[in-house]
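Chain A, query sequence.
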Amino acid sequence: MTEDDDSTDGISQIEARIEALAVTAERCRKFILASKAAIAGGAALLLIVMLGLFSAGSTAALGSIALMLGGIVSLGSNVSTLRQTDAAIGAAEALRAELIGRIDLRVVHDAPMKLM
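Chain A, predicted structure.
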């Protein structure tokens, strides 16, 4: 095996890692959206209970507070994970670019074009 083959294998592995990280980042974005919806839903439910438009009273109020707190915790966790994942993607892309830069590429001059 030559050094180019090793670089190609390394590049392939890095690209697979970047794709896996991209899937993780997308999943985090979906959870962030769901967390924001939970926070908004909990706040709306709490407002409805406080205005007396919903007769469940304290049970609905406690549920809405729990929904908001759960959304806040989930939001914070997923934002943190997304930042770490984005940093890992950036580092992997930089490493991939470095490996591609090391490959000794040849320019083919005056190659006849073949039509089939």
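The mean pLDDT is 88. The first helix runs from residue 3 to 51.
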